[in-house]
């Protein structure tokens, strides 16, 4: 229902704009398939990593907070470089392929890794690969989509991505249920899925060029946008919200600490979140296209606030755990692709990848700081007081973000971006 094989967003015709709102391109679906397979791989590892690091490797909350911060934030080191490289060469597919390849190899590197330093190095390599590929991939999605349907296009991609994210923990759960404690089998099967995703990208995804133009001039325009009001205000809002957004692993460890369920059930927490994301990604993407991406982005953080408060309750149970997972999935569905869609309309087409990367870099750096701070507060006061503190901070940041995002949904114009008319 969403697929059309006409990948050129410039195609014209009397019915073209209306048809574009009902469909997304085949390139978006193929890129979603790549992300689906890759997320089976990455979420297999991510769903066991918190327990593996705290129970097997023996990390303290502060050490885990640092490593979770690395997992959340180190990709920022290369996100802008990846976006710029894709824009400069006008072939973002191959920049993305390099990033997917690095992440695939990191799965095998987990096998001999033992100890904090080795695991940190492997996680860093994986996240650098993610940082390199994300902006070029999102630039391909934007290049293959009509501007009026960007929210839907990113929503469809994130839906396919989340199918993999939901399946990955299930595969990990099945492996650990069959052979308890067999983390090596999780890493090997994860590598196989990563290679399959890379193969789809290299062999099937069209090598669509991004918009032509002087890339250095485009980069200068992005820098000018960041310095100016149009992009600076959304980036500041994303940064402030990111500073009070903790990683999933900490939230799940808090739930396990409260409810004391068996370790083998831990990967299923990721499934619950990803199923909620899967169901809501397209509807919230469409809603963002209609009512404003900034509004939906902020609403997603209100769902996160609800998740913090429910997880911080002294008593839990299955029902409250499911509520937390649903709220967390709603948060991701309302923010992940929506932020990329928002920013892609605020920068010139020939530097779209760089602009998206700037927003993603802002978010992951802020979340790096949040993970380290949350780990420290957990170490000093415990998980629930840490969650209450972050809930209070998030409640204070949301009104500021609302003010900063007013008017952010208006598209860039030649006058505002410096792009040629």
Question: How would you characterize the overall build of this protein?
Answer:
The protein is built from 17 helices and two strands. With 421 residues, the protein is mainly α. The protein has one domain (3-417): Up-down Bundle (Growth Hormone, Chain: A), CATH 1.20.1250.20. Helix 2 runs antiparallel to helix 12 (267-291) and helix 12 (267-291) packs across helix 14. It is globular, with a radius of gyration of 20 Å.
Q: Give the overall form.
A: globular
Sheet of most strands: 2 strands, parallel
- Sequence of strands across the biggest β-sheet: 1-2
The CATH topology assignment is: Growth Hormone, Chain: A
Number of helices: 17
Total strands: the figure is: 2
Number of domains: 1
- In angstroms, what separates the terminal alpha carbons? 35 Å
Summed over residues and divided by their number, the pLDDT gives a mean of 80
Low-confidence stretches: 1-21, 212-216, 413-421
β-strand amount:
under 5%
Q: What is the CATH first-level class name?
A: Mainly Alpha
The level of helicity is over 70%
CATH superfamily heading = MFS general substrate transporter like domains
Q: Tell me the series of helices and strands, N- to C-terminal.
A: EHEHHHHHHHHHHHHHHHH
CATH architecture: Up-down Bundle
């Amino acid at each position: 229902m969403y697929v059309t094989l006409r990948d050129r967003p410039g195609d014209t015709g009397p019915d073209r704009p209306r048809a574009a709102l009902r469909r997304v391109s085949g390139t978006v679906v193929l890129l979603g398939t790549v992300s689906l397979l890759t997320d089976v791989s990455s979420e297999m590892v991510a769903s066991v990593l918190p327990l593996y690091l705290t129970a097997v490797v023996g990390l303290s909350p502060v050490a885990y907070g640092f490593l979770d911060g690395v997992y959340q934030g180190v990709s920022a080191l290369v996100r802008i470089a990846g976006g710029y490289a894709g824009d400069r060469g006008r072939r973002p597919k191959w920049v993305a392929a390099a990033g997917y390849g690095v992440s695939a190899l990191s799965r095998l590197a987990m096998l001999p890794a033992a100890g904090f330093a080795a695991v940190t190095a492997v996680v860093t390599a994986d996240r650098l690969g993610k940082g390199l590929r994300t902006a070029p991939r999102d630039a391909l999605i934007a290049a293959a989509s009509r501007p009026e349907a960007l929210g839907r296009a990113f929503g469809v991609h994130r839906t396919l991505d989340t199918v993999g994210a939901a399946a990955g923990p299930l595969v990990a759960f099945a492996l650990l249920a069959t052979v308890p404690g067999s983390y090596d089998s999780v890493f090997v099967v994860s590598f196989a899925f990563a290679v399959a995703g890379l193969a789809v990208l290299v062999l099937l995804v069209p090598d669509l060029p991004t918009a032509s133009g002087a890339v250095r001039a485009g980069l200068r325009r992005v820098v000018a946008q960041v310095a100016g009001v149009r992009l600076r205000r959304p980036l500041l809002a994303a940064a402030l919200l990111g500073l009070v957004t903790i990683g999933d692993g900490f939230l799940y460890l808090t739930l396990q600490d409260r409810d004391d369920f068996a370790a083998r059930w831990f990967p299923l927490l990721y499934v619950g979140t990803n199923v909620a994301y899967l169901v809501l990604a397209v509807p919230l993407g469409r809603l963002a296209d209609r009512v404003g991406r900034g509004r939906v982005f902020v609403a997603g953080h209100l769902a996160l606030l609800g998740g913090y408060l429910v997880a911080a309750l002294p008593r839990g149970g299955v029902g409250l755990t499911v509520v937390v997972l649903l709220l967390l999935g709603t948060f991701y569905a309302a923010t992940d692709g929506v932020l990329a869609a928002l920013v892609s309309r605020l920068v010139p087409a020939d530097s779209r990848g760089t602009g998206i990367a700037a927003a993603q870099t802002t978010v992951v750096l802020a979340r790096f700081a949040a993970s380290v701070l949350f780990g420290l507060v957990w170490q000093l006061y415990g998980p629930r007081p840490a969650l209450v503190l972050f809930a209070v901070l998030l409640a204070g940041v949301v009104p500021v973000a609302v003010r900063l995002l007013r008017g952010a949904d208006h598209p860039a114009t030649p006058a505002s971006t410096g792009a040629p008319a």
